Amino acid sequence: MSIVVLQLPDVKRKSENRPKKCPYCQGEIFQRWGKVRKPVRDNRYRTIQVYRYRCCHCRRTFRHYPPGVDRADQTQRLRKLAAILWVLGMSLRSVQLALLAFNIELSHMSVWRDMQEQADLLKKRRQWQGVRVLGVDGAYPLLKGKKVPTLIALDLGTGQPVAVGQVDEANPEAVKRFLEPLIQRLGVSVIVTDDLNSYRKVAGKLGVEQQVCQFHVRRWVGLALHELKQTLPQEWLWVLDEIKRLLAELPLEGSRRLFELWKQVPEKRTGQAGDRSPLEKLRYILIRMSEHWASYRVFDWQKDVPWTNNGTEQAIGRMKMRSRTVRGYKSWDGMEAALLLAGSWLAW
Ligand SMILES: [Zn+2]
């Protein structure tokens, strides 16, 4: 995990410079037009000084705030601090109490809004940074007591989430709508996913390489082989060992080898109508693995591609654990913000 550096915005009690442009007309010449004391909520200052200016061009007046201060009554520093305390593991009400110990009064709803503001800032910044390898995985966080199908996309270079969407991962159209703008904007060249068909379709349509998480593949193949071991005619058991070996070694020629095995296994149906016989099941595994083989081993020739989607799953685990301290999300936006910020740890 990356090193966490707490970076809080600086707050000044008064401006050290004059405004550069009029916020209304972009004029550049001003008269000082008095000053006001502005009460602020901050961990250091109670009030700060704001100069007012009048634009010589449009004659309107405006306030010129010092660094770290804007129209809000909380300084930018306090807003970020409140969000950080939340990300560190405190509930909204504990953040409220902790700040009260330093004589800073903030309602728990203000803490909630601070958290959402930081998530928005984060989202905007992440929108434009380059991501080469994107991990994508589904999750089902609770919103008003109901599980919401959610897709989370993570930069596997930095381990930071880049987007959270209300998307059912089994629906290829929805997955495409979510991933297409991300892939184009971020310049993604590889996605790392589990073995769902929807991801495969979308990767093909969007022209990105897909690395399929090998833990997922080993799991479903392992289960299928285990079942076949009991049911398959003795003379074909060697094929199971061959599949296991290929999966363990992931050789380049694996696809061709599996295809050859598929041709060797007889096609004829032995079970009752509708039921797949063990030999047919074996053929299905062989052809599916042969066709998907390339997506099992992208990591072998593409730099910085992991061979499992573990990184994404772990980050999602952290996000869910952290955002669980918010009881009863009222809106999707709130939940999205919580997940995004929680997954970002403190790197924003
Ligand atoms: Zn003006």
Describe it for me?
The chain is an alpha+beta fold. 44% of the residues lie in helices and 16% in strands. The protein is built from 11 helices and 10 strands. It has helices spanning 76-87, 92-100, 108-126, 172-186, 197-206, 214-231, 237-249, 254-264, 278-296, 310-323, 332-343, and strands spanning 30-39, 47-55, 61-64, 133-139, 142-143, 146-147, 150-155, 160-165, 190-193, 209-212. A 5-stranded mixed β-sheet has the order 8-7-4-9-10, with helices on both faces. It has a 3-stranded antiparallel β-sheet with strand order 1-2-3, with no helix packed on it. A two-stranded antiparallel sheet has the order 5-6. A hairpin with a 2-residue loop joins strand 5 (142-143) and strand 6. Helix 1 (76-87) packs across helix 3, helix 4 packs across helix 5 (197-206) and helix 8 runs antiparallel to helix 9. It is elongated, with a radius of gyration of 28 Å. The two termini are 15 Å apart. The mean pLDDT is 91. The protein binds zinc ion (ZN). Zinc ion (ZN) binds at residues 22, 24-25, 27, 55, 57-58, 60. The site of zinc ion has 8 residues, from loops.
Produce a short descriptive summary.
By secondary structure, the chain is α+β, with helices and mostly antiparallel strands. It has helices at 76-87, 92-100, 108-126, 172-186, 197-206, 214-231, 237-249, 254-264, 278-296, 310-323, 332-343; strands at residues 30-39, 47-55, 61-64, 133-139, 142-143, 146-147, 150-155, 160-165, 190-193, 209-212.
